[in-house]
């Protein structure tokens, strides 16, 4: 936790610069930071500015800080990531990584090789999504939650929505066995499609190509989805 993310509800009533924390963040400051009264810690207001908090009180029950927020959060990467819904355990890791790396918008869509049961996972509940994203933001020192949305049906998503979505962007679909390689250090915003664990089926790649989305490869080694996300983003930006 390189930044403690604060919610409006953390502020003590009637004291606009003072927060009181219990639970996970309090435990972390106590055990990992081993902070003491008068120490300063990096803080940020969820979807707001960042700065520091001066510890005014810390005991086994709670942490209190006096907060000063003067900095803007870092810019996001110019990318929309469209990811075939991964299995819940992998989704959790990917959510926190994409928040750390600065993805501002994630679309989780259905594709042929996405197991139906993944759509019923509790990992898709908004509180669960937010918990993972927050871990990623705290790691990176950012405050702005990525926007996450779902598309349960591939064809209407690709035919009706994708044309608008990819306008004025470099639109790519990561797919192992194609001839074009993924570009490096691009200068324009990107819309990036990544497939499920079993990969896209041919007709899905054709449907994406029909919208002008270019299949690109990272080479002959097949990467796990979560590794592909990291490698693609670092290569593109
Ligand atoms: N057997 C599948 C592999 C799927 S890997 C297939 O042959 O398509 C899961 C997803 O990660 C892929 O759909 C793709 O989007 C991405 N990916 C993994 N390795 C990749 C590589 N070497 N090049 C491009 N994309 C890759």
In short:
The chain is α/β, with parallel strands linked by helices and 237 residues long.
List keywords for this structure.
about 240 residues; alpha/beta; Ribosomal Protein L25, Chain P; Alpha/beta knot; 2 domains; six-stranded parallel β-sheet; five-stranded mixed β-sheet; 6 helices; about 30% helix; elongated; binds S-adenosyl-L-homocysteine
Distinct small-molecule ligands in the complex: S-adenosyl-L-homocysteine
Structural class: alpha/beta
Rg of Cα set: 20 Å
Helix content: 25-40%
Estimate what percentage of residues fall within beta strands.
25-35%
Could you tell me the mean pLDDT? 97
SSE series: EEHEEEEHEHEHEEHEH
How many β-strand stretches? Answer: 11
Instruction: Output the CATH topology of the largest domain.
Output: Alpha/beta knot
**Mind telling me which CATH architecture of the largest domain this is?**
3-Layer(aba) Sandwich
Spatially, the strands of the biggest sheet line up as 8-7-6-10-9-11
Indicate the low-confidence ranges by residue numbers. Answer: none
